[in-house]
Each structure stands twice: as C-alpha cells, then as structure tokens.
Design a protein that fits this description.
Blueprint lengths: L3 H34 L5 E5 L10 E5 L2 E5 L14 E5 L16
Parallel strand pairs: 1-2
Antiparallel strand pairs: 2-3, 3-4
Length: 104
Amino acid sequence: MIDVDRLEHIILAAARAAADPLRERLEAVEARLLQVENRPELRYVGVWESGRQYGTGNCCTDHGCLWIAMSPTSDRPGEGATAWRLGAKRGRDGRDGRNAPTET
C-alpha cells in the first residue's frame, strides 16, 4: 500500500530542492534590477549657469565641453570641482570653410 504522507513529503522536498536555486537566482536578478532602476538618469539642462543647483545626473555645457554632475553641486565644472565629470571634451575649432565641399 502507498504511504501518502511519505509520498507527499518526498514530492515537497523535491520541489523545494528544485525551487531553491531558482529563488536565489530570482533574488539576485531583483537586486540588480533595483540597482539599475535607482541609477540617476542623464538629463541635459543647458549651458552652465552661476548660482544654479545641479542634481546628480544633470549634464550641462561649459566652455564647449559637456559635464556630468556626479553629485549635487552649484560649483562651476572644471575649476577643481569634484562633483563634475567631463563627458565630452571640446574639439578643435574648424577652418574658415573656404575649401569645404559644396552640395551639387
């Protein structure tokens, strides 16, 4: 005769053993998703302005360069301010355009 209680115990133990690795993986994926969702978004807010407060992830241009605020700041980028990171350095000025190709 089949011992139903014993069979139920075996089935539940097997299901738990199969589910535990999946649960651990799901928890890791959920933790990673939370990190990604909490990252600051990059948002261009225009040319740097004196006295303006910039939040983490705000991007502005100053002296032809693009700067990214790594933490809240009102400091001017590039003047020893540690809250800013250079995103794109200003390029060289172009020539006068006299020899530039023209559309035909």
